[in-house]
Amino acid sequence: MRQSPLILTAALLASALMLSACGNEKETQPVSASPGAATAAAGLPASASAMTKAGTEALPENLPKDFPLPADASISTSHSGTADGKKSALLVFTTKESMETVIKLYKDYFNAKLGSDAAQTIDDKNLIIQGNTKDNKQSWSVIGGRLASREGVIELTVTWAES
Length: 163
Known about the structure:
This protein is α+β, with helices and mostly antiparallel strands. It is built from 3 helices and 6 strands, in the order H-H-E-E-H-E-E-E-E. The protein has helices spanning 5-22, 46-54, 99-114; strands at residues 74-83, 86-95, 119-122, 126-132, 138-146, 154-162. The two termini are 17 Å apart. The protein is 26% helix and 30% strand. A hairpin with a 2-residue loop joins strand 1 and strand 2.
């Protein structure tokens, strides 16, 4: 039986969220970098471009270039892939921006991308937005919240795939 990309994405994100919620006192170490992603930084928004030059990880090569990042984002995981001819990307990052600021940034972005059909669970501690673009060509998921092990830090996991 073939699984839908959105179901697989949700399962991956749930696993990542559970691991991040456990937290530890160590800084997150990079898992993988996307070859050539740093060269794509020229087409990114100014805040994302500056981040990719300063951080140890670059944005995933396949992630749409208009994806916004907080100015202080610290990328811990960046991965791009292709399966069955369809591109995908995984991004995990932290920010010290307020939860209100992060919620506004991603709520505005995904409301424009996904429209009213997106599934959203948003409160003062959690942000979950999942859905397909209006043209049904891309699936998105962002899941995040405050880290118990690092006060004032929010971690977000973003997955994107061509549908």
